[in-house]
Amino acid sequence: MKNPSRRTFLSAAAAAPAVHLFDIVPARVLASPAPSDTISLGHIGIGGRGRGFLVPEAESTARKPVTTNLGGDGTRGRTPSRSVALCDIDTSRLDKAASVVGGQPRLYKDFRKLLEQKDLDAVVIAAPDHWHALMTIMACMAGKDVYCEKPACNTIEEGRAMATAAERYARVVQIGSQGRSQPAAFQAARYIRNGQLGKVGSVTCWHYANPLGDWTPDAPAPAELDYEMWVGPARWLPFNSKRTHGSFRWMIEFGGGQIRDRGAHVMSIAMWIMAADHTGPVKITATGEPHHDGMYDTPNTMNVTYEFKNPDWTLVWAQPGEPSTELQARYGAVYRGDKGTLTVTLGDGNGTATEQKAKDYVAPCDGVQVFKSPGHMENFLDCVKSREKPIMHIEAGHRVAALCVLGNVAYVLGRPLEWDPVNERVANDDEANRLLSRPGRGPWSL
Amino acid sequence: MAEKETKFLADLQSDNADVRYSAWAQGGEMDPAVLPELAKLIAGSKPGVAKAAGEALNRLVHSVGKLPSNTRRQAVVRGLTAWLNPKQPVWVRTVALRHLSLVGGEDVVAAVAPLLAGADLREEAVFCIERIPGKASANALMAAAKSVPDDFKPRLLAALGHRGDKEAADLCAGLMQSPNAEIAMAGMKALARIGVKPSVSLSAPSTGALAEWQLLEFADSTLRYAAALARQGVTAEAVKLYQVALARPEEHLQCAAIVGIAKIGTAEGAALIFPKLKSSDPKVRRTAQKAWDSLKGA
Description:
The complex is a heterodimer.
Chain A: E1 39-44, H1 48-51, E2 81-87, H2 91-101, E3 106-108, H3 111-115, E4 122-125, H4 132-141, E5 145-148, H5 156-168, E6 173-175, H6 183-193, E7 200-206, H7 227-231, H8 258-261, H9 263-273, E8 283-290, E9 299-308, E10 313-319, E11 332-337, E12 340-345, E13 353-354, H10 356-360, H11 376-386, H12 394-413, E14 417-420, E15 425-426, H13 430-434
Parallel strand pairs in A: 1-2, 1-4, 2-3, 4-5, 5-6, 7-10
Antiparallel strand pairs in A: 7-11, 8-9, 8-14, 9-10, 11-12, 12-13, 14-15
Chain B: H1 3-12, H2 17-24, H3 35-42, H4 47-62, H5 71-82, H6 90-103, H7 106-112, H8 122-131, H9 135-147, H10 153-163, H11 169-175, H12 181-194, H13 212-231, H14 235-247, H15 251-264, H16 267-273, H17 282-294
């Protein structure tokens, strides 16, 4: 042990009190603020979805209106921001992204190195779902605010750990369920929360099925991909091009299928409108039928019922379910109250729509006021400045992801779950409780 | 084997995917005596058959998973434990460990623990034991942490930390003195997650050999430990830790200290937060303001 300045650690009884602990961490190591009107962004994961978040240098101060399918009504531009660091474990993507961004962004293969970069205010995480929790937590540890793609997490424990980390470091964490920032979601929320449907007893989602997935043989990972890092904390599987980039989501272990992919959008709006961001259902019942062949294990058809108490209402995720008769769309949700119904279609991109009656509705001055997001990224950047909670803050993100996770757990186990949304445990089900967390792998652990 | 099980195994190997599906959907109703045959099918070369066998196994395991007292559960666990035989293919043993992580009890740990010492399955073995509740798992992990090669000790410590095994606090504190920086930091991280004071004295790992990222983990572990002390009512020590964070130049450590102190919720804590209301850093200032508001009445 060469360090002569080593201090007694964490011992109240010690003569040298624990308060010296931080003194041995050099200040150069830890993040320092990057004071500027322009928010500096680092990007972790710059494949398909991640590419859409890049801010070209030429647009960094342009306050350019939203163009990336992230909601808002286009009436205001983006808070000045710039992409100054890019990270991906697929090197074929780095140079392409750098050319999109322009300037001289720093390029990384290891996200931990990106997080050490001092001049970053925030990071945008668009890595595969099984990385969301660790990357978010580690970003908070490094003092960065976080915009993390949906779904927030793959397990209940991960989501709770993310919320705890954000709280511990007072970081702003926005989950990328951008449906809440769509004008139609605002109109629906304003309409329903002001009692226009009466008491809402059910929200029923419909969505098309998960894909079949042919048999594709495992193969060596391509040289440009660090596959060991891609798997990261998840259980090891040999490389297969049909369950890696993008297609990972058709494996329950990695992406969880439509219920976790689109469910994190459609059910996010439902939880927001129903003011349930702080809680969860008390019972989850799931049925479904898998594809009879092919390499994916997410179910073809699926029907999950979530029962909420105080107030009592039911949320249903159905593949394919019954589409709305009011508006045509491949997926969406119907809100049913004792005075009427309202449809919100899609729930993610800018095609999200609702019925004319909600668009036309004007809330009374003394009615329920609903926050109108200027756009999902705009809202996040606003909150980076203001330190307020964004519209899809991590607690909400966790609660929505919990719906998706629990739906899959109930489907996989083939039995209903009695859920305690306060303690986040399943009653009288040993195996289900073990599935609420997942041990890490190698150096990756919560 | 009964006629039902014989047909089940035959149908799993059908060339018709719909027939295979009809069979695997009944996996939860089968006698655990089918497990040896399922192992052969899972290791086979036909992907459709291997999938059907794997799905059938899922249903068989899940059918006994709800309650430890389920009488069929022991038979399933015994059958899966037999899959750990070194003569079985590595993939079959891996599948067994993943399922035993869900339904295995303390009696399984003795069969799995020796795998922690081998290179080919140690990661799957720790995954399995980490998930099995009880002292047998903690004891196995602690014993292995003393004997496995150094490169695997951090993984075992992470498992103990993740499980929150209080009996491992002294072990973690001891390994924080390891000359191996990876082990020392793993000990610190695990202790912070366990969150109890060890009975032995504590010294921080040497920071000289730590990578920059590990120094962030160092600070994070300290904050986690402070939060754990506060939850246990050891508030004076927690506040001492937070006070140092409060004096650091890094705004996010100051914010973390403010949040932690506010949770303790004392007038003394409010006095520590008060100066931060005038911090030149807007993040610190806003965090302090929120904390101050939450402390009204303290």
